[in-house]
Amino acid sequence: MAEWSDLRYFLELSRSGTLAAAARKLRVDYTTVGRRLAALERDLGAKLFERTPEGLVLTEAGEGIRAAAEEMEEAALLVEQRALGADRKLAGSVRVATTEMLGQVVVLPAVRALHELHPQIRVDLATGAPRLDLARREADVALRYFRPESGDLVSRRVARVAQAAYASRGYLASHSRAVAGNGLAGQEVVMLEARALRGTMIAGEDPAEARIVLRTNNSLALHRAVALGIGIGALPCYIADADRELRRVFPEAPVELDDLWMVVHEDLTRTSRVRAVIDALQARLEEIASDLIGERFSSRG
Question: What are the b/e assignments for 255-275, b being 16+ CB within 10 Å?
Answer without folding.
Answer: bbeeebbbbbbebbeebebbb
